[in-house]
Amino acid sequence: MIIPTGTANVTCAQGQDALLSCQTDNSALTYYMDSGGEYELEAPDRADVQTAMSQYNATDLSVSYDASPTFSGSAETDVVYQEGSTGMSAGTIGMTWCNDPSDNYAYRCDQQYVRIRGNGNITPISAGHETGHAVGLLHGPFAYPSQTVCASVMGIMRSAATCSDSAALGSTVIANINAIY
C-alpha cells in the first residue's frame, strides 16, 4: 500500500494536481504547522496534528517538529501543514502534494504540503491520513493487492468520506512504512 505498487507505479511529481502519493525523502520526518497568514492552523488544530504525528512514532520514522522550517535547499522541512480549501474540489477534506520531487529517487519528495479544510475537518484522523500520503501510503484501490476504500487492512488510509473512520495506523500500515524506511 506504499508507492510504488503493482497497481500504482507513477513517479513523484510536483504540484497540487499530482495523482498519487510520494514517499518522504528519508526516515527523519520533520514537520511544521503554518503559524501565520492565510493557511494558519489554530491551537486546537495544531493539537490534532501533533496527536496524529505521535502515531508515527510507532514506526521506524523519526518524527520531530521543526520550529524553524526550511523551504528550499537540501535540508527542507519534510511536511508543511496548512488549513484552507484553496485548490480543493468541493467535498474534499484534505490533500497532500509534493513541492520538491527528489532528484535522486523517482518515488520520493524533499518537501510536501498537507492542506486540510477548516471548520472542524482537521482531526487526528484527517491529519494522520494526509501524513500517510506524505510518507507514500495509498488508498485501497492503489494498494497491491488492490483493496476496497473501506478495507480494515488499510488502517488510517481508509476513506474518511465513505467508511467508518479508523484513527489507528494499523499493523499493515506500520509494516509497510517500516519496510521502506
Sheet/helix structural class: alpha/beta
Q: Please, what is the average pLDDT?
A: 92
Number of helix segments? 3
How many beta strands in the DSSP annotation?
A: 6
State the fourth-level CATH superfamily of the domain at 23-138. Answer: Collagenase (Catalytic Domain)
- CATH fold-level label of the domain at 23-138: Collagenase (Catalytic Domain)
What gap, in angstroms, lies between the N and C termini?
Answer: 14 Å
* Helical coverage, percent range: 10-25%
Tell me the β content: 15-25%
User: What is the top-level CATH class of the domain at 23-138?
Assistant: Alpha Beta
Q: Specify the CATH architecture of the domain at 23-138.
A: 3-Layer(aba) Sandwich
Task: Give the overall shape, derived from the CA principal axes.
Answer: globular
Low-pLDDT runs = none
Q: How can the largest sheet be summarized?
A: 6 strands, mixed
Q: Could you give the order of the helices and strands?
A: EEHEEEEHH
Spatial extent as radius of gyration: 15 Å
InterPro entries: MetalloPept_cat_dom_sf
Protein name: Peptidase M10 metallopeptidase domain-containing protein
GO molecular function: metallopeptidase activity
Organism: Mumia zhuanghuii
